[in-house]
Write a structure and sequence with these properties.
Structural class: mainly alpha
Helix content: over 70%
CATH topology of the largest domain: MetI-like fold
Radius of gyration: 25 Å
Number of helices: 14
CATH superfamily of the largest domain: MetI-like
Shape: flat
Amino acid sequence: MEHSLRQRRRFRVVKSLFGVSLHYAALLAMATLMFFPYLYVISASFKQTTTLLSFPPTIFPEQPNLDNYIYILTQLPVLRWYLNSTIIAVAITLGEMLLCAITGYAFAKRNFPGKNLIFVLTMATLMIPSGLTLFPAFMVARNLGLIDTYAGVILPGLPSAFGVFMLRQFMQTIPDELGQAALIDGCSDFGVFWRIILPVSTPALAVLGILAMNWSWNQLLWPLVILRAKSLTVLTVGLANMRTEWTVHYGYLSAAVFLSVMPLMVGFLFFQRYFVAGLTAGSLKG
């Protein structure tokens, strides 16, 4: 009897270890597939273009060098591209978080005539393709004198319907008693939003901030249309212009691409716990 129980326990332990090992092996395989493009770009940035075109291809450079980085940092205005992208991305992210939070609070906690209809119309804009609004947005920007300005890139995307929806859904999970108690204590409506609702909504704001930063940093079409001066070129447009019709210098391009994605990778590593917390917060009630 005891021998049979021991065998069953061993079988359960082996089965459990096998399941865990299989699980981690699948995760490792998926992580490898996802990280491989980044590894190849990083490796290519330390190679000469002639080496990149050789066959068979190699993952790790035999003679790594910094020639590609030296060239793009000294011969190309990459730092200016970085500055322009940073200004635009930070402005869009902060504006997105603030305006979406105010709008989401109004839809979640305030009552006014036509609230549901306005919210439905706001969500309906998510079904409109961005390419369909490109020409009207350009005409409005031109009539307002926003061509070749930072504001011309920043203002059209504020606020987004997705950000309003996400913060509205999160703020609906916050008990109304918190705001009512603050009002009884003499807090104004804006004070309730600024001192009570906004701090509680930090996880959702962190998720929205990361998504907005990623979108604004990687946008290409709108800056390409609205910005014409070379001094206002953003990083994505600069990278696109590095590829001509007849030549592609893969070494320079790989180095520039790695420099462009590095801020997003580092930022996500620092804020990933807030990102995960924001995605899971509000998913359960009670």
